[in-house]
Design a protein that fits this description.
61% of the residues lie in helices and 0% in strands. It is mostly helical. The protein has a domain of 155 residues: Tetracycline Repressor, domain 2, CATH 1.10.357. It has eleven helices and no strands.
């Protein structure tokens, strides 16, 4: 069975400023500002000051502020699309837990995405829904088409594999993802959002991973004690 490890966010090593394209530097600064101030807590003037640029320089790369946020959301959609990878030869229950652990790490490593996602949920039709626009369709559409569809298919395979073991009940993958994503987003911002304002410790990451797995275990009716007993019997 695959051994579960506490996974910590791995921040990308920043390249020297001179080697980073201006377009990417703008996105990086916007990402940093959203993480600490929120989606609507900064202006383009706040973006250019640390970059030692003038506002017109931004307009060479983006049409307006919303255009910057949509492009940033597209970056997060690309990262989200890699989630729920299937571990080869892993016990299905263990593989699902590893995938959920990595999902926690993804959220903690991308606090600006957490805030953008919450802004999307709070902006029904007619508003600027950044993640939806970046993904090229509605949340419902992304279960079957678009850049996030493969991620949802992988999650469905993980859940089906777990159910086939007889140790987890079957559940609609959309319902499972709805509960897991919504509760994790809420956990990271309420009653405070301190984990989005700094790098969390390994202990804090592990605590959230255990919390999310406990929730998933209840949703899927996984009997951990029974599972352990079966493993002990099989090893005798």
């Amino acid at each position: 069975m695959a051994r579960r490890r506490t996974l910590a966010p791995k921040p990308s090593r920043p390249r020297p400023a001179g080697t980073v394209p201006t377009r990417e530097r703008i996105l990086n600064e916007v990402e940093r500002l959203i993480a600490v101030r929120g989606v609507h807590g900064f202006t383009l003037q706040d973006v250019i000051v640390p970059l030692r640029m003038q506002v017109p320089a931004i307009y060479k790369h983006y049409r307006n502020r919303d255009d910057v946020l949509i492009e940033l959301a597209r970056r997060f959609v690309d990262r989200l699309a890699t989630q729920f990878q299937i571990e080869a030869d892993a016990d299905p229950i263990a593989a699902l837990r590893i995938a959920l652990d990595r999902f926690v790490v993804f959220k903690l490593a991308n606090p600006a995405y957490v805030r953008l996602a919450l802004a999307d949920f709070a902006t029904p039709g007619g508003g600027m829904e950044y993640v939806k626009l970046a993904a090229g369709g509605s949340f419902v559409d992304n279960f079957s088409s678009g850049p996030l569809a493969p991620m949802h298919r992988r999650l469905a395979r993980l859940l089906n594999a777990a159910a086939r073991t007889g140790r987890a009940r079957r559940i609609d993958p959309t319902d499972f993802y709805r509960i897991i994503k919504a509760t994790l987003l809420f956990r990271l911002v309420f009653p405070d959002d301190s984990l989005l304002l700094r790098a969390p410790s390994k202990r804090e990451i592990s605590a959230i991973q255990r919390w999310l797995w406990a929730l998933a275990r209840r949703i899927l009716s996984i009997d951990v004690r029974g599972t352990r007993a079966k493993r002990r019997s099989a090893n005798r």
